[in-house]
Structure formats: structure tokens, C-alpha cells
């Protein structure tokens, strides 16, 4: 309460200077003093902002897009008004997740696509091979094999690495097996039957046979295992953005949208002794630049050099973050006239039958006629939206040749909504993991008045990101701020 009044007053004064400042370089500088400046208003940044606000901290969230929520995007079909979640849909059903939705007053429903999958037909989208559905006895046998694999995995793997949902608390010395190719690791622990499941649930986790075992395990922590056996949570409205609308209301004008960062300075500056720690200069369209003076900085954007390379990184920060590379993921809605069934992409010849990459995971009914959700994955970030659309058209031509989609689908398809989610799965090599990368990464927390959150620190799983905030980042920040 106190803060929202404070922030309104400060921001109002910034706004009133804007028109003057744009014409006169000598206009009064607009500045904001806060406890924590948060860069990135996505899953990690917004959750931390709410927790910090509740702890009595003054926060400001700096978001480059015109809405908060990061990968939680929704397309609403203009005719049917049915919302389709393009990015984030399901949350693991943990207490941390339940508490956060309850805190924001957003109703949830339990749901389990593992128990009741959407009806679909399977094809290899790159080869045009139909994959026949299993008969009931074969399906029951597969279910048994998967159940046994889950049991083996829980008993023999998760019990050894109980920290996977908490963060990358990789022990030192680094267990060698965490750097093995995941396919080999799964074979040793008798859970190979789970690999296609992991790939489907985490689309796209990388090549499931070859990613370091650490990332494979991170893609199936205790929270997901118990949700697969029990239930996931989804927003009861059917629109994941309900959560972010509630958060936006709660945070009010302490969120700065459409922001670009001009400058980040984390050294103590003369004259700012009381508040300083960090200075961030932010530009919003048609406004004078704002100078944010914060005691602490929370970086909640993917920490690649492309994103943070212009900040005042130390040599050791720069060296560490330069080790990251990422995958690509494009999500959207395809309108395919004449198609009325969901199609799943299954690799006929790949290990564990995962789809050929680059490629789609499937075309899944969005609830509106002829409209399908799609996710095109890439093994790098070096592609354009046009490249992804070309891949979908090629898949549709291949599928048309075997009668799976209308003959002209590759020509008639349109993309009412499409969005690039790169960089996705920001990770390092097995060699870097072995050399203690995660120990060094976690040592960044709190150093130079800076904290870090988001998928690179907690995995691509909102529940795990909020657990990382609640268990590690927020307690450390509160302690540092004396709250
Ligand atoms: C398509 C997709 C579907 C997913 N589905 C699920 C799901 O169903 N369930 C689940 O639990 N997890 C899901 N995830 C994984 C995970 O929940 C999300 O990836 C989550 O959004 C990651 O949170 P984050 O805070 O790291 O990043 P983000 O949520 O992406 O937040 C980063 C924010 O920072 C902003 N930003 C970036 N650069 C700057 C900058 N320079 N200045 C200011 N702001 C900047 C971005 O615009 C964004 O809003 C999904 C991920 C993707 C990509
Ligand atoms: C079911 O499929 C399996 C393997 O695909 C086959 O061996 C079996 O004969 C089939 N059973 C029936 C009842 O059709
Ligand atoms: C995996 O299964 C094999 C054969 O059943 C068994 O010998 C081995 O001990 C199992 N490995 C583990 C880690 O349980
Ligand atoms: C994953 O890597 C293995 C080994 O390099 C390769 O055989 C396989 O085809 C790859 N899988 C996919 C889906 O590309």
C-alpha cells in the first residue's frame, strides 16, 4: 500500500517532465528510488516482485514488451472468443504454485493431459509416414512400462538429486554421471521408456539422447513426476494471462512497460550513498529517460551476452555468461482450412521416436475450428519466423501427400498468431558442467548488489522458477535489504 502511493507520485513527476525533456536536454532528470530494480517482467521477475512487495520492499519492474508475463501469451480467436494459450499452459501442482495463484486471487483447475490426452493421429511430419495407434492391449503394456520407468527414475535418480526442483545445486565435485548423454544415463538407470514422455512434456528439451543428463533430470523433477501421476494446475479461465493480469493490477505503475535499458551501473556512485548500489537508466517511448536508483538489482531475463552484454559486466561475469548457448522455439496458431483432427509428430526413425528437428511437435486443436497450436523447435537461435513458417508448410506438403491434411494445406495455411520464444533452454556444455559451471553461476547471487532468476537458473518450468525465488533469491534479497 505504502509503496503504490510512493510509486504513483514519483512516476507522475517523471511523466510531467517527459514533454519538456524531449525538447530540452537541460530538463530536470527524472529519477526513481527503489529497493530492488527488476529487469524482466516474465515468470521469474513478476513472481519475485510480488514476493518482495509483500515483504515491504519498494520494487520497479522493467519490461521491454507492452505486457508482462514473458512466455505466457494468449491468442483469442476473434470469432469464437476462445482463448488459446500459445506459451505457458500448465503448472506443476505444487504448494508453491497453489500459494502464488491464491495470493493473486486467480482460480485454478486441476487437469492431466497424461491421463486424458487430446485425441490425435500420429505421423512422421518429415517423412509422411503414418504411425498407427496402439491397440488397447499394446497401449496398456506401454503404460505399464512407463509406470515402471517412473518408479525406477524416482527411486534411483530423484532420490540422489533431491535438489532438482530447488535450483542447480550441483554438488562439487560434480558427479560424472550428470554429464553423460541423457540416453546413456537413462539406459543405466532403466528408465529409457520415459524419454519420449520427457520430450513431449518439455517441448523442446533438446536432443533427448544427447543432452547432458543434468538437463534431462532437470526436465523431470519431483513436481512434474507427481503432476504426471496426479494433476497439473491451469488457470480456471482457460487463459494463463489471468495470472499476469492480476499481477499487473497488484503491481500498478511500478511496472515500466515498453522499456529499453540504456545503462546499468552497479558501482557505488558519489552522491547516491543512501540509495545506491545500482543505477539503471530506462527509456520508454515518448518519455524522458528515467534514472532508477536501486539498492539491489534482480536480473530476470535470459542471461545471455546478447541480452546483458551491454550491462557493466565484470570480466568474470562476462566469461561465465559467454558459456551459455540456447535452443529456439517458435509457438503460434496455424489456421489449416479443412483439417479437423489434431496431429502429433512422431519420429519414425529417430531414437525414442522424437520429432525430427527443426520441426513441429504437432498441430493441436486450439478449440476454434481449423485452428491448431504449434511449436516449431530449433537446435539454435539462428532462424527467422519466415524459416519456421516454411518448415510448417513443408510438413503440411509432406502430410498432404499421404492424405493426412487437405491437398492444398501448404498453400492455404495462415498464421493468425506466431511468436518467437528464443533464447529457449539457455545452457552450457557437458564439459562446462563438469568444470563446475553451476557452482560459479550460483556464486553470482548477491555479488555486486545483483541477483539472478529465471529459467537459466531454475529450469523451464514456472513452478521451479517460483520455487527458486521463494527458496533462494527472495530470502537472500530480504536478508541483504534488512527486511
Ligand atoms: C512456448 C513456451 C511454453 C511454456 N509452457 C510452460 C508451461 O505450460 N508450464 C510451465 O511451467 N512452464 C512453461 N514454459 C517454461 C517457463 O515457464 C517459461 O519459460 C517461463 O516464462 C520462464 O520464465 P523467465 O522468467 O525465465 O522468462 P520470461 O518469462 O521469458 O521472462 C523474461 C521477461 O523479460 C523480458 N525481457 C527480455 N529482455 C529484456 C530486456 N533487455 N529488458 C527488459 N525486459 C526484457 C521479456 O520480454 C520477458 O517478459 C514454457 C516456455 C515456453 C517458451
Ligand atoms: C495389438 O498390437 C500388438 C503389437 O502392435 C500385436 O502384437 C497384437 O497382436 C495386437 N493385439 C490385438 C488384440 O490386436
Ligand atoms: C536395470 O535393470 C537391469 C536388468 O533388469 C538390472 O540388472 C540393473 O541392476 C538395473 N539398474 C538399476 C540402476 O536399477
Ligand atoms: C539425436 O542425436 C543422435 C545422436 O547424434 C542422432 O542419432 C539422432 O538422430 C538425434 N535425434 C534427433 C531427433 O535429431
Summary keywords:
483 residues; single chain; binds 2-acetamido-2-deoxy-beta-D-glucopyranose; alpha+beta; seven-stranded mixed β-sheet; nine-stranded mixed β-sheet; binds flavin-adenine dinucleotide
Intertermini distance:
16 Å
Bound molecules: flavin-adenine dinucleotide, 2-acetamido-2-deoxy-beta-D-glucopyranose
Shape: globular
User: What class, by secondary structure content?
Assistant: alpha+beta
Count of strand segments: 21
Q: Percentage of helical residues? A: 25-40%
Multimeric state of these chains? single chain
**Biggest sheet: strands, sense, closure?**
9 strands, mixed
What amount of the residues lies in strands? Answer: 15-25%
C-alpha Rg, in Å?
23 Å
Mean pLDDT: 92
Q: Which runs of at least 5 residues are low in confidence (pLDDT < 50)? A: 1-12, 16-27
Counting H and I runs of at least 4 residues, what is the number of helices?
Answer: 17
Pfam families: NAD_binding_8
Protein name: Amine oxidase domain-containing protein
Keywords: Signal
Organism: Neonectria punicea
How is the topology of this model organized?
Elements: H1 2-23, E1 30-39, H2 43-54, E2 59-62, E3 74-76, E4 83-85, E5 91-92, H3 95-103, E6 108-111, E7 120-124, E8 129-131, H4 136-158, H5 182-188, H6 195-201, H7 213-218, H8 222-229, E9 232-235, H9 241-251, E10 255-256, E11 260-265, E12 278-283, E13 290-299, H10 305-308, H11 315-321, E14 325-335, E15 342-345, E16 359-360, E17 362-365, E18 371-378, H12 385-401, H13 409-412, E19 414-420, E20 424-427, H14 430-434, H15 437-442, E21 450-452, H16 455-458, H17 462-481
Helix pairs in contact: 2-9, 2-17
The structure holds flavin-adenine dinucleotide (FAD) and 2-acetamido-2-deoxy-beta-D-glucopyranose (3 copies).
Amino acid at each position: 500500500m505504502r509503496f503504490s502511493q510512493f510509486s504513483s507520485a514519483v512516476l507522475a513527476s517523471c511523466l510531467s517532465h517527459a514533454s519538456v525533456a524531449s525538447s530540452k536536454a537541460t530538463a530536470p532528470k527524472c529519477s526513481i528510488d527503489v529497493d530492488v530494480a527488476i529487469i524482466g517482467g516474465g515468470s521469474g521477475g513478476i513472481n519475485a516482485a510480488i514476493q518482495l512487495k509483500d515483504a515491504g520492499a519498494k520494487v520497479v519492474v522493467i519490461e521491454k514488451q507492452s505486457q508482462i508475463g514473458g512466455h505466457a501469451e494468449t491468442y483469442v480467436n476473434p470469432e469464437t472468443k476462445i482463448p488459446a494459450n500459445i506459451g505457458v499452459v500448465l503448472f506443476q501442482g505444487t504448494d508453491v504454485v497453489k500459494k502464488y495463484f491464491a495470493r493473486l486471487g486467480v482460480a485454478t483447475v486441476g487437469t492431466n493431459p497424461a491421463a486424458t490426452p487430446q485425441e490425435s493421429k500420429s505421423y512422421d511430419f518429415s517423412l509422411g509416414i503414418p504411425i498407427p495407434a496402439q491397440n488397447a492391449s499394446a497401449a496398456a503394456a506401454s503404460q505399464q512400462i512407463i509406470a515402471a520407468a517412473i518408479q525406477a527414475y524416482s527411486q534411483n535418480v530423484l532420490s540422489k538429486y533431491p535438489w532438482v526442483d530447488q535450483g542447480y545445486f550441483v554438488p562439487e565435485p560434480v558427479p560424472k554421471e550428470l554429464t553423460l548423454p541423457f540416453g546413456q544415463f537413462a539406459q543405466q538407470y532403466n528408465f529409457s521408456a520415459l524419454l519420449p514422455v520427457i520430450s513431449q512434456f518439455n517441448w523442446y528439451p533438446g536432443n533427448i539422447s544427447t543432452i547432458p543428463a543434468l538437463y534431462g533430470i532437470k526436465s523431470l523433477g519431483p513436481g512434474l513426476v507427481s503432476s504426471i501421476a496426479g494433476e497439473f494446475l491451469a488457470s480456471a479461465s482457460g487463459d494463463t494471462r489471468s495470472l499476469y493480469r492480476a499481477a499487473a493490477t497488484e503491481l500498478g505503475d511500478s511496472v515500466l512497460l515498453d522499456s529499453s535499458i540504456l545503462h546499468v551501473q552497479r558501482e557505488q556512485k558519489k552522491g547516491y550513498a543512501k540509495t545506491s548500489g545500482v543505477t539503471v537508466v530506462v527509456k520508454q517511448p515518448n518519455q524522458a529517460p528515467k534514472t532508477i536508483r536501486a539498492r539491489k538489482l534482480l536480473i530476470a531475463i535470459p542471461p545471455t551476452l546478447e541480452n546483458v552484454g551491454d550491462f557493466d559486466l565484470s570480466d568474470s561475469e562476462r566469461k561465465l555468461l559467454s558459456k551459455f548457448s540456447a535452443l529456439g522455439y517458435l509457438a503460434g496458431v496455424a489456421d489449416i482450412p479443412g483439417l479437423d483432427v489434431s496431429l502429433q509428430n512422431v519420429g519414425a526413425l529417430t531414437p525414442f521416436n522424437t520429432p525430427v528437428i527443426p520441426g513441429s511437435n504437432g498441430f493441436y486443436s486450439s478449440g476454434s475450428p481449423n485452428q491448431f497450436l504449434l511449436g516449431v523447435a530449433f537446435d539454435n537461435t539462428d532462424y527467422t519466423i519466415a524459416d519456421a513458417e516454411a518448415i510448417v508448410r513443408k510438413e503440411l506438403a509432406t502430410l498432404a501427400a499421404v492424405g493426412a491434411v487437405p491437398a492444398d494445406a501448404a498453400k492455404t495455411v495462415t498464421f493468425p498468431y506466431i511468436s518467437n520464444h528464443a533464447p529457449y533452454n539457455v545452457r552450457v556444455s557437458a564439459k562446462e558442467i563438469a568444470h563446475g559451471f553451476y557452482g560459479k553461476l550460483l556464486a553470482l547471487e548477491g555479488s555486486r548488489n545483483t541477483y539472478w532468476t529465471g529459467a537459466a537458473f531454475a529450469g523451464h518450468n514456472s513452478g521451479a522458477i517460483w520455487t527458486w525465488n521463494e527458496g533462494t533469491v527472495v530470502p537472500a534479497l530480504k536478508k541483504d535489504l534488512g527486511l
